[in-house]
């Protein structure tokens, strides 16, 4: 059966999905996807997966996609970050039987994407992107989709989208911010860019950006004409966003924790979700915030969640008639609601800065200019500086690591094959060789094994000889008895 394309793919395979949960690193795992689907989400993406790691690491595949089958978790799109056509397609081939489409991440704006050369930092390399999508469209049995960020110029954004469509992209998600708009500098997403793309291409388009509640979804569809709307942060703070409800936080938290019991995930994911769900309440109960950060078991997280629920119920019981939410919130803090990310000036006031140009700098911007000045360092780096005053964060002073000949990861300094440990282990095993630099001694162990086997034969030989002599003697006795 030929794979569906464009509108037919969206209508039949994706079941005309309008409400979409975004791909979120370590946050759109199976348990969270199932919670979101129960409360209105019609399509979900996996977290962003690294194509090269997915290709070489069976454990990574099992943990992120090959786990327990769950028929409820469809339709599902698997998202990869990649910068090599062959690696991308080979990883996608391993994933295509577990999903309904493969998405290429061209929207991640974070520093890790810049260092790894993927995400939004590929948006100027149109020849490379064409090769990647053309090859994927040719080789895969499921459609290829893309998630992009916009350029400041609308015309360039439109040409970018048309190029991706021509290469074989069957659905396009447009985040209406540029790659520079992130963190406290995010600002408002441009629905004007999204509308222009929707009018210029003949494939389905999803919009992403400025989605905090169901009315935002409806307004976005009305203004841009898109087929569906994707939510990330809005969904994390209120997984019932697409139902148009604002439930009690503990209801969502308890339901999520029950799903996690059935479909386990790393504790860090669970903790991060509760930090989002309980965000406004944890501004009130600081001690419980510390406990949630330190707890080391799922049962411990359940206990913190229970204590937060009890505190809120007690607060509700003592509430005075006509009392209104504090801190300018639309609802009381124990109700799921949007979190409005503060801009640079608001962030400075929160941190006790004066609002000068130095104070306005965003946290992520600091990563690009880490010159060791503690005034310009993030809070985490300032803590490290306190523990180790001689520590420097100047990128020019960081050691330059040579790359593995096989995969491009940092190689071991003393590796005899000039490889990282993973690649070295495979080669050393295949060739029965030693690599003292990585502590791999396949040849030595093999030789010891042969030596041991030889020594065992030497021990057994006299016994065999003695047994043989005894048998010869016994035969002679029997022969003499027969002769007599």
From TrEMBL:
Residues 21-310 form the DUS-like FMN-binding domain. CDD domains: DUS_like_FMN. Its EC number is 1.3.1.88. InterPro entries: Aldolase_TIM, DUS-like_FMN-bd, tRNA_hU_synthase_CS. Pfam families: DUF702, Dus. GO terms for molecular function: flavin adenine dinucleotide binding; tRNA dihydrouridine synthase activity. Residues 346-394, 453-472 are annotated as: Disordered. Its main location: cytoplasm. It comes from the Eukaryota. Its cofactor is FMN. It is an enzyme of class 1 (oxidoreductase). Residues 453-464 have a biased composition (Polar residues). Keywords: Cytoplasm, Flavoprotein, FMN, NAD, NADP, Nucleus, Oxidoreductase, tRNA processing. GO terms for cellular component: cytoplasm; nucleus. Transmembrane segments: none annotated. It is found in: Cytoplasm; Nucleus. Residues 346-366 have a biased composition (Basic and acidic residues). It catalyses: 5,6-dihydrouridine(16) in tRNA + NADP(+) = uridine(16) in tRNA + NADPH + H(+); 5,6-dihydrouridine(16) in tRNA + NAD(+) = uridine(16) in tRNA + NADH + H(+); 5,6-dihydrouridine(17) in tRNA + NAD(+) = uridine(17) in tRNA + NADH + H(+); 5,6-dihydrouridine(17) in tRNA + NADP(+) = uridine(17) in tRNA + NADPH + H(+). Belongs to the Dus family. Dus1 subfamily. Catalyzes the synthesis of dihydrouridine, a modified base found in the D-loop of most tRNAs. Specifically modifies U16 and U17 in cytoplasmic tRNAs. Affects the level of some mature tRNA and thereby the total cellular translation. PANTHER family: TRNA-DIHYDROURIDINE SYNTHASE, TRNA-DIHYDROURIDINE(16_17) SYNTHASE [NAD(P)(+)]-LIKE. This is tRNA-dihydrouridine(16/17) synthase [NAD(P)(+)]-like. It comes from Orthonyx spaldingii (Chowchilla). The lineage of its organism: Eukaryota, Metazoa, Chordata, Craniata, Vertebrata.
């Amino acid at each position: 059966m030929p794979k569906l394309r464009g509108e037919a793919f969206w209508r039949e395979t994706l079941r005309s999905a309008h409400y979409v949960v975004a791909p979120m690193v370590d946050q759109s795992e199976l348990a969270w996807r199932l919670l979101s689907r129960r409360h209105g989400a019609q399509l979900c993406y996996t977290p962003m997966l690294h194509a090269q790691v997915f290709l070489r690491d069976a454990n990574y595949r099992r943990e992120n996609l090959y786990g327990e089958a769950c028929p409820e978790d469809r339709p599902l799109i698997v998202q990869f970050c990649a910068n090599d056509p062959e690696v991308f397609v080979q990883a996608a081939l391993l994933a295509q039987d577990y999903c309904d489409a493969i998405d290429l991440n061209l929207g991640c704006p974070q520093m890790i994407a810049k260092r790894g050369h993927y995400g939004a930092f590929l948006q100027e390399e149109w020849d490379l992107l064409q090769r990647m999508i053309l090859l994927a469209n040719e080789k895969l049995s499921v459609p290829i989709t893309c998630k992009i960020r916009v350029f400041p110029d609308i015309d360039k954004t439109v040409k970018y989208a048309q190029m991706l469509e021509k290469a074989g992209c069957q659905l396009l998600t447009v985040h209406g911010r540029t790659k520079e708009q992130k963190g406290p500098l995010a600002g408002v997403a441009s629905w004007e860019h999204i509308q222009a793309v929707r009018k210029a291409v003949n494939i389905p388009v999803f919009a992403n950006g400025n989605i905090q509640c169901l009315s935002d979804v409806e307004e976005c569809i009305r203004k841009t004409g898109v087929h569906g709307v994707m939510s990330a942060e809005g969904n994390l703070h209120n997984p019932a966003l697409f139902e148009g409800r604002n439930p009690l936080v503990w209801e969502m938290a308890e339901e999520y924790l029950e799903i996690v019991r059935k479909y386990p995930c790393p504790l860090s994911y669970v903790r991060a979700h509760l930090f989002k769900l309980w965000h406004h309440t944890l501004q009130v109960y600081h001690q419980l915030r510390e406990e949630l950060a330190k707890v080391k078991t799922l049962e411990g997280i359940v206990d913190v969640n229970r204590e937060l629920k009890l505190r809120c119920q007690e607060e509700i019981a003592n509430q005075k008639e006509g009392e209104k939410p504090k801190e300018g919130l639309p609802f009381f803090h124990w109700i799921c609601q949007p979190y409005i990310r503060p801009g640079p000036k608001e962030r400075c006031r929160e941190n006790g800065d004066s609002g000068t140009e130095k104070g306005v700098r965003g946290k992520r911007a600091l990563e690009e200019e880490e010159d060791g000045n503690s005034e310009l360092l993030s809070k985490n780096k300032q803590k490290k500086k306190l523990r180790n005053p001689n520590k420097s964060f100047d990128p020019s002073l960081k050691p330059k690591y040579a790359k593995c000949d096989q995969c491009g990861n940092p190689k071991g300094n003393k590796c005899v094959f000039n490889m990282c440990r993973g690649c070295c282990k495979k080669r050393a095993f295949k060739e029965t060789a030693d690599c003292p630099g990585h502590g791999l001694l396949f040849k030595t162990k093999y030789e010891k094994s042969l030596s041991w086997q030889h020594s065992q034969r030497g021990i057994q030989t006299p016994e065999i000889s003695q047994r043989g002599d005894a048998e010869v003697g016994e035969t002679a006795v029997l022969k003499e008895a027969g002769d007599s």
